[in-house]
Specification:
The protein is mainly α and about 150 residues long. The chain has one domain (about 10-140). It is about 85% helix and about 0% strand. The protein is rod-shaped, with a radius of gyration of 33 Å. The protein starts with 9 loop residues before the first helix and ends with a helix.
């Protein structure tokens, strides 16, 4: 009936069997906690990828907006130094078109960058739930060993 083969008295063999069972259970508990931590980390990694994508697209759009606004400034300066002709008097000046498009891209880039930073700040890569579970398990084990003495 005893799993442990020893010449020790039955009470010592039972204690050794009990300790072996506890060690085995703790090992299984650790395996489960590691799996849970990995799953939680992968979930947070997906959130970080989404936030980084927003941040990247937002930054690219903001960069494009800055480039277009710079071109607008160049065309605006050019337009301001040219005499009025019938070509520019008929519609929207070229520099204004660059400015409008640049402002739209700059606003879009700002919004997307803000959303990306906000999402990135919300993500915590540490598996907090797993750490809480491990702390509870350790305190429970400590209480059980303290009560058994």
């Amino acid at each position: 009936m005893n799993d442990v083969k020893t010449d020790a008295p039955p009470s010592v063999a039972n204690a050794a069997s009990l300790v072996g069972g506890i060690v085995g259970d703790i090992g299984e508990l650790i395996k489960h906690e590691v799996r849970f931590a990995r799953a939680e980390f992968l979930s947070d990694l997906g959130k970080m990828k989404t936030a980084a994508a927003f941040l990247g697209v937002g930054s690219a759009a903001a960069f494009l907006g800055i480039v277009l606004l710079s071109l607008m400034a160049v065309y605006g300066l050019h337009y301001a130094t040219q005499p009025a002709t019938s070509e520019f008097a008929q519609g929207l000046p070229l520099w204004a078109a660059f400015g409008i498009v640049g402002a739209v891209f700059l606003a879009l880039g700002g919004v997307l960058s803000w959303v990306g930073l906000d999402r990135l700040n919300r993500v915590n890569p540490l598996p907090e739930k797993t750490l809480e579970n491990v702390q509870k398990d350790v305190s429970w084990i400590a209480n059980q060993t303290a009560n058994s003495k």
